[in-house]
Amino acid sequence: MYQALYRKWRPRTFDDVVGQSHITDTLKRQVATGRLSHAYLFAGTRGTGKTTCAKILARAVNCEHPVDGNPCNQCPSCLGIESGSILDVLELDAASNNGVDQVRALRDEAVYTPAAVRKRVYIVDEVHMLSVSAFNALLKTLEEPPAHVIFILATTEVHKLLPTILSRCQRFDFRRIAPEDIAGRLEWVCTQENVTIDHDAAMLIAVTADGGMRDALSILDQCIGRSDGHVTYGLVAETAGLAGRGHLIELAECIRTGNRTAALEKIDALYKSSKDMGRLCEELAGFFRNLMLIKTMKDASGLVNAVGEELEAMTKTALSMELSTILHALDAFQSAQSRMKTMNKRTEMEMTFIRLCTPEMDTSPAALLRRIEALERGGLRRPITP
């Protein structure tokens, strides 16, 4: 049976984990020296290695022949934990098991010594989804756990956790993985899969994944499925839906020239093609954020979510627009995102573009600044079309 790449090539040792050496080095030392905490909290965005490191740690603390803090992945304990046959290591998804009854059952079970390994390990994924009563049921065990128990809590929204939980855990914050590191891993995976990939294609996947290795491998999986054994930049752009981002540049040009008619026609065409207006507003906010960085920095390539031809087109657009116009548009789209929660999304999008294309009709401070700058340059710009 075919196995998805993100599952097939999931790291099995701390040394294999990409971009999180500040965490993996510490965990290796703790395992090697035996200075283990009773509770860990792994926090970070999706796809950065939280659950992977939790599973590696669960094997490492029970490994019969650890290698410099890494699990050997060959002894009965490692193999049993990896296959799921050893029930002393339990992974709980708090998103679907968030009630107090499940946590109480876990707490009651924790008092018993493990049957097959040294440490009983509980991995609680998306722990922020637990109810308040479930958190309270977990508190006592986290505060005074049995010596044979280790809790590993993982979350993408650490701000939702109670301070009483945070204070009882060793916290590790997982960073977004750098595009260069993701691209290097993708090229290594392609080598293992007997597939060739262009470096700019790997970088495009890495940038699109926005710091998440799992997302990057999922995109690569799709690209390989559509390729003839060679993954190119164009194939990645088409597969990831990036080939259609030209509409963002077209809409930005409408704002620059004040072409309300063209903007409204473009919005109508996107709406009829089933483009969600909320998603479009989010994309435009991200697009103008990139324009802002390009306009204000000497080299913004490291911060902009684009590479290759897309970055060149973005740079050309940024250089053709005034910074005040870019900032005004960014502020307008972020405000529109909030209003779309209670208003008709298409109507809000159309109103936003009419204001942006006709700054003299907009009384906001950003619009007034644009008008003043236009007067200083020699006269207020008139819209191309009525």
Question: How are the SSEs placed, and which strands pair?
Answer:
Layout: H1 5-8, H2 21-33, E1 39-43, H3 50-60, H4 76-83, E2 89-93, H5 100-110, E3 120-125, H6 132-143, E4 149-155, H7 163-166, E5 170-173, H8 179-192, E6 196-197, H9 199-209, H10 213-226, E7 230-231, H11 233-239, H12 246-257, H13 260-272, H14 277-296, H15 308-320, H16 323-339, H17 345-357, H18 365-377
Parallel strand pairs: 1-4, 1-5, 2-3, 3-4, 6-7
Helix pairs in contact: 3-4, 5-6, 8-9, 9-10, 9-11, 12-13, 12-15, 13-17, 14-15, 14-16, 16-17, 16-18
Question: What would you note in describing this structure?
Answer:
With 386 residues, this protein is an alpha/beta fold. It is 54% helix and 8% strand.
Which labels suit this protein?
386 residues; alpha/beta; five-stranded parallel sheet; two-stranded parallel ribbon; 54% helix; elongated; disordered C terminus
User: Biggest β-sheet, characterized?
Assistant: 5 strands, parallel
End-to-end gap:
60 Å
Which H/E pattern describes the elements?
HHEHHEHEHEHEHEHHEHHHHHHHH
- Which bin fits the share of residues in helices? 40-55%
**Beta-strand content estimate:** 5-15%
- Major sheet strand order: 2-3-4-1-5
Number of strands: 7
The count of helical stretches stands at 18
> Outline, from the CA principal axes?
elongated
Q: Any low-confidence stretches, pLDDT <50, length ≥5? A: 380-386
Main structural class: alpha/beta
The residue-averaged pLDDT reads 87
Radius of gyration: 26 Å
